[in-house]
Automatic annotation (TrEMBL):
It comes from Chitinophaga solisilvae. This is Exodeoxyribonuclease 7 large subunit. PANTHER family: EXODEOXYRIBONUCLEASE 7 LARGE SUBUNIT. It is an enzyme of class 3 (hydrolase). It comes from the Bacteria.
């Protein structure tokens, strides 16, 4: 049974409202918190969101309150977005000025009155500076600071004389990449480029590993790229947090190919920009830098060509003058030599004519003497040779008769001798010719008892068989 007196809900909420108004009326507080559950109604310009505080160790929520921003608070949020380039959205860490109120229908309400832009920018800058210190500490072999600038292995590389083959790291739907390619392809100097695209996500701090992997892919491709260009088409300040990561800063600083950045930010310089070879503000500027680099090479070549032409003209002029002087000297010297040699030749001409006449007269006399000797000497020689020939003929005739008689006597002797030793005469004297196997034999070496032989006599040929064989020396037939 209810013993206390009851009241209406409106009375209770009215008392709560009165108590809170008495406690928080005309008071404001600067609160550090994270934004969650944000929603924005553009038609009215209202922001609805929660402010939460998380435990630093476990990230568990330790406090949460609903908040709104309209009117002047919405204006201050818009100014915050313009100054920082950071949209007011979930998961950003902010310092906001709020007031506390209570509505009998809507309950407890925190109203955003102002937002500190310096706090958010300062937090990002603090993180950035911490990352830079870590890079200098852990990567001292290829990153060091000199004044306000960082010297890295990458920004100490030299561009090749001409940049033509380019690896581009960008997102697949990047408008910045389209601007970059359009600028390269439509350059007014007619330069041509070969670009290989390595598409990946280039937004979000957690995506730094993907961009690093694309750098690894470029290195492992084995292609001799002239430069690597990292492109992003612009965005809010926090959209560039990927390029302020330790992972990507280290990868770019030690990369062995010059890296050009064109990630679309106009205000702040990212860590990746500081580590890269050539940072630019936009993709278009990156393309213009490449074109300008090639143009400087072309200008240097044209300038060298002009210097060569001028120097060639100077050398030609100098040597032409020297050649002209030498030509004149050669002509004058030639004329002098010809004149001198002409006089010498004229002298030799007279000398030859005079000496020739003298020689001709002398040799004519000698020739007449020799001619007379030649005419008389052959007659004497011919007469002597005729006498010798007559004597020789007489001797030949006499000796020929004697020689013929001697030879005739020798022939008669040999004729008689041949008749005596002819086979017919020998057979008539009682000798015989023995044949074995159709061949004449002159010894019994091949004949044995039982052999068949043929014996040719003067008037017949006898066929016989050997019944015995007695050997003897030749002494029995010696004469």
């Amino acid at each position: 049974m209810i013993t206390s007196e009851s009241i209406k809900l409106s009375a209770l909420t009215g008392r709560i409202q009165q108590a809170l108004n008495d406690a928080f009326a005309a008071q404001t507080y600067w609160v550090v918190a994270d934004v969650t559950n944000h929603s924005y109604y553009a038609q009215k310009g209202y922001h609805y969101f929660d402010l939460v505080e998380k435990d630093s160790a476990s990230s568990a929520i330790v406090a949460k309150v609903a908040a709104v921003a309209w009117g002047n608070g919405a204006v201050r949020i818009r100014e915050f977005e313009v100054v920082t380039g950071q949209p007011f959205k979930n998961d950003i860490h902010v310092l906001v000025k709020v007031s506390v109120s209570y509505h009998q229908v809507h309950g407890l309400q925190i109203s955003l009155l102002d937002i500190d832009t310096n706090f958010t920018v300062g937090m990002l800058e603090q993180q950035k500076q911490q990352t830079l210190v870590r890079l200098q500490t852990e990567c001292a072999d290829f990153i060091r600071k000199a004044g306000d600038h960082y010297i890295t292995r990458n920004n100490q590389l030299q561009f090749r004389e001409v940049i033509q083959r380019i690896a581009v790291i960008t997102s697949g739907n990047s408008a910045g990449f389209q601007d970059f390619r359009h600028t390269l392809e439509h350059n007014r100097f007619g330069y041509t480029f070969q670009t290989d695209t390595y598409f990946t996500v280039v937004q979000g701090e957690s995506k730094a590993e993907l961009v690093q992997q694309k750098l690894i892919d470029i290195y492992n491709s084995g292609i001799a790229y002239d430069a690597v260009v990292i492109i992003r088409g612009g965005g809010a300040q926090t959209d560039f947090l990927l390029f302020d990561t330790f992972l990507l800063g280290r990868a770019v600083a030690k990369f062995p190919i010059p890296v050009i950045t064109g990630i679309g930010h106009q205000k702040n310089e990212t860590i990746t920009d500081m580590m890269a070879h050539s940072p630019t503000k936009t993709p278009t500027k990156a393309a213009e830098l490449i074109i300008a680099h090639n143009k400087s090479f072309e200008d240097a070549v044209l300038e060298m060509r002009q210097r060569i032409i001028i120097r060639s003209q100077q050398l030609f002029s100098t040597h032409y003058q020297a050649l002209s002087a030498l030509n004149a000297a050669v002509i004058n010297q030639t004329r002098n030599i010809i004149s001198i040699q002409k006089e010498v030749l004229h002298h030799y001409h007279h000398t030859v004519l005079h000496d020739s006449q003298s020689l001709l007269v002398k040799h004519q006399r000698e020739l007449m003497t020799v001619s007379g000797e030649i005419l008389s000497t052959p007659r004497i020689l011919v007469a002597g040779k005729r006498n010798d020939l007559t004597n020789l003929i007489a001797n030949i005739r006499a000796f020929n008769r004697l020689y013929t008689q001697n030879r005739r006597g020798q022939l008669a002797h040999y004729e008689t001798l041949f008749k005596l030793v002819s086979p017919d005469n020998i057979l008539r004297r009682g000798f015989a010719i023995v044949y074995q196997d159709g061949k004449i034999i002159n010894n019994a070496g091949t004949v044995s008892p039982g052999s068949n032989i043929s014996v040719q006599l003067h008037d017949a040929t006898l066929t016989a068989a050997v019944t015995g064989k007695t050997t003897h020396d030749e002494r029995g037939t010696d004469i």
